[in-house]
Write a structure and sequence with these properties.
about 250 residues; 10 helices; 5 strands
Length: about 250
């Protein structure tokens, strides 16, 4: 992050509360510019990276990235702003838990004001905290009627995520949704466009398998998702393949 961006972030805080003011004019200008990006003229992956970087600059964040549903690992990182953004993505991709994974599973915004003091994700929390990730927010990115991934942002110190910040992040998520949709239609030969098509194809059986496990195991969606992912990984199989096997009743867990 630039020195100017870092100063802006510090100046925006109020008495050490971790609350940051939003420059509304800068936010609106950034959203307008991003809405007019053309996936037909620029590689889709580069555009996603530009949105991720814009989020970090506007909010003075330590990192950001995007996870996309994947046939093999359930969720895979496709963009990261920097090393902290990469760590945020990599740890959650590896362990299948965290605020951004949960955001995808329940299709809602999920926040942690200080992940070092958060007990919801015991395997990922210490890794992120040691890497300098403290406050985290995950926003579902939707396509084709449901979530296909998440926009994920992080700060390197505790931060109170305000309602206005949550709303603004949802707007950035909507920018990504628009770019992904246009990019998917504009060029199906683009590498990320192909990944998006895979995401659309695999999301439904994974969602249905999670719902089936919730009913049969009488558990919550996060536990069901983790069980599906863990078994597939232990057997070195695709998550989507195991999901389809469960749904066809060829496999009982």
């Amino acid at each position: 992050m630039s020195a100017e961006g870092r100063r802006a972030r510090v100046d925006g805080r109020h008495g050490g509360s971790g609350i940051v003011e939003i420059d509304r004019a800068k936010l609106d200008a950034s959203l307008t510019r991003l809405h007019h990006l053309a996936p037909s003229e620029i590689e889709l992956g580069r555009l996603v990276g530009e949105v991720v970087r814009a989020v970090t600059e506007i909010f003075g964040l330590a990192g950001a990235g995007m996870l996309l549903v994947d046939a093999d690992r359930a969720l895979r990182s496709i963009a990261a702003s920097d090393s902290r953004g990469a760590l945020l993505e990599r740890a959650q991709e590896e362990y299948g838990e965290g605020p951004c994974v949960e955001s995808f599973i329940i299709d809602e915004v999920v926040v942690s004001n200080d992940i070092a003091a958060d007990e919801r994700w015991p395997r990922v929390t210490p890794i992120l905290a040691r890497g300098g990730v403290r406050a985290v927010l995950g926003v579902p990115v939707r396509l084709g009627g449901g979530p296909i991934g998440t926009l994920n942002v992080a700060d390197d110190r505790p931060r109170v995520w305000t309602d206005s910040e949550r709303d603004a992040m949802v707007h950035f998520g909507a920018v990504l949704e628009n770019l992904l949709l246009v990019g998917l239609v504009a060029d199906r030969n683009d590498r990320l466009a192909r990944q998006l098509q895979y995401a659309l194809d695999y999301r439904v059986p994974i969602e249905r398998a999670v719902g089936y496990l919730m009913a049969t195991m009488r558990t919550d969606p996060i536990t069901a998702f983790e069980k599906l992912r863990r078994i597939a990984r232990g057997e070195r199989r695709r998550v989507s393949e195991l999901a389809e096997e469960i749904l066809s009743e060829r496999r009982v867990l």
